[in-house]
Amino acid sequence: MNLNFFDYLFIAVYFLGLLAFGVLVRRIRNFGDYSVGGRSVPGVMIFASLCATYHGPGYTMGFTGKGSASGWLFFFVALGFTAQTVLTALFIAPRLQSFKNCYTVGDVIGNAYGKTAKVVTGFISTLLCIGFAAIMAKVGGLVLQGTTGLPMLAGVFLVTGVGVVYCFTGGMKSVIATEAMQFSITGIAIPILLWLAVSKSGISLHEADAKGWAAMHASLDGMTPLQILGLFLSFLLGETLIPPYANRALASGSPAIARGGFLAGAGYSVVWFAMVVGLGVVASVAIPNAKPDDAFVTLAIKFLPHGLLGILIVAMASIIMSSQESVLNAGAVSFTRDIRDALGGNALSDGQRLRLSRLSTLVMGLLAAVLAYFAPSIIDGLLIIYSVWAPSVLPIFLFAILLRKPVRGAGAAAMIAGAAASLFWQFGLKEPGHVPALVVGLAANLLTYGTVALFSKRDKPDNIA
């Protein structure tokens, strides 16, 4: 991409401004601020933070690529995510407000099932957050390499490094504040790209729409009903209450704020999914020879004028960092609370928890940057993570929130059984009969929970958080 002086200036100002904003404006003083923003985050910031996470590369560049290859299919698949956000808003997020002593998913599960379940949750949450961050780091490196010519290694460390610095300094407060800014940038830049791609290419929207529906039907014809179900369930369950989303519910100022922020985010997600999948549908007509995975960047190179290219690159960096910074913060807090606090012999002070969380953020960022070279493509990587989270932690977490007396001994066993069954079915057996690994894992989780329940006394454990 041939950038001019103003493009480079805009990029430099953005990264420097982001550091200044995240580091200087949002300093925090204790672990509660670092992990859940002091439990006082207003609804508009919850909304902006959730939407900035939707703007991540999976739900922007990834869905643009899928729109180019599969037409409107992934818009309808993505509505599973919208449905779970509505359900979370109505039934889950407000209830999480009652867990005033909890900072993580593991804390909630630990209160219901005991220390072993808390530690298992901590390991799963931390590892999956590192996996999320690695996927984001890889995408960031590839985007900066393709748009500025920056070597991939430098791009990976630039995107990850900036996010790590302000997560290290400001924790959840910096994450939410900078995500609100990133939400504003991407919320403007992507519609501009869509408008310019349509107007400058001169394509017929009727032709593009017809091609989108044809591509969707062609994709569906090549899938079995079980594969279609598995794909929908992946987006319905795969990101439900993952640590960054659960932490936002815990950080909300009240149950009403949590409910309103998630409901508004659900409504916005429909508009966003239509927009980014629509970008892919437009790309399939405007640039028919482009590879689907390159559709987003290729559209920008072809149709954006100089001066807007720098804004686009900033927007792409924003959508990557908005996802990466969330999981880095959530993973660091989970490691501190769910692993170190549960397994450590001596209790940590508030200051020690804060320092350990900051150190964990640095280590996780470094690991993510290194593992970026081994990360799969965006959507494939996310689907693998979904196939672990949904069959392992999610059912147990929901039971802990919704049931008055969950079965104490079932937590750890069900999580391990669900994760192991899903991974073995997916990678060991290669999903025989096209039965999705997520479905097999969920069945193993629920079967294990039910079996343990038959032989367990349903006592509520002591509070261990």
Question: Could you characterize what this model shows?
Answer:
Helices cover 78% and strands 0% of the residues. The chain contains 18 helices and no strands. It is an all-alpha fold. The termini are far apart. The protein has one domain: Sodium/glucose cotransporter, CATH 1.20.1730.10.
Short description:
Helices cover 78% and strands 0% of the residues. With 465 residues, it is mainly α. It has a single domain, classed as Sodium/glucose cotransporter (Up-down Bundle), CATH 1.20.1730.10.
List keywords for this structure.
disordered C terminus, about 80% helix, mainly alpha, 18 helices, Sodium/glucose cotransporter, about 475 residues
Summarize the SSE layout with pairings.
Layout: H1 5-25, H2 31-36, H3 43-54, H4 61-70, H5 73-96, H6 105-113, H7 115-148, H8 152-201, H9 205-221, H10 225-237, H11 243-251, H12 255-286, H13 295-303, H14 309-343, H15 350-371, H16 378-402, H17 410-428, H18 437-454
| Name of the CATH first level | Mainly Alpha
Helical region count?
Answer: 18
CATH superfamily placement? Sodium/glucose cotransporter
CATH architecture: Up-down Bundle
Tell me the Rg in angstroms: 22 Å
Q: How many structural domains can be distinguished in the coordinates? A: 1
> Which overall shape is indicated by the principal axes computed on the Cα atoms?
globular
Total beta strands: 0
Approximately how much beta-strand content do the residues carry?
Answer: under 5%
Measure the end-to-end span. 52 Å
Major pleated sheet: none
Instruction: Give the structural class.
Output: mainly alpha
Mean pLDDT: 86
CATH structural fold name: Sodium/glucose cotransporter
Q: Can you write the helix and strand succession as a string? A: HHHHHHHHHHHHHHHHHH
How much helicity do the residues have? over 70%
Instruction: Point out poorly predicted stretches.
Output: 461-465
Oligomeric assembly? single chain
